[in-house]
Amino acid sequence: MVTKKILATSACLLTGLSFATSSNAALSFDVTFNDPGSVYSSYYSSIQNNIIAAGNQWASYFDTSSVSTVLTVSVGFESIPTANGGSATTSFYNTQGGIFTYEQGAAYELRTGIDPNGSAADINFNIGINGYLQSELWFDPTPSNLLDDTVPLNQTDARSVFLHEFGHAIGFNGWRDGTTGLLPGNYQSTFDAFTTLVNTPQGDTLFFTGPQAQAVYGGLVPLSFGNYGHVGNGDGRAGASLVSDLMNGVVFFRGTRYEVSALDLAILRDIGLPVNNGPSVVPEPSTYALMFGGLGLMAWVTRRRRVS
Question: Where are the chain's structural domains?
Answer without folding.
Answer: 3-170, 187-290
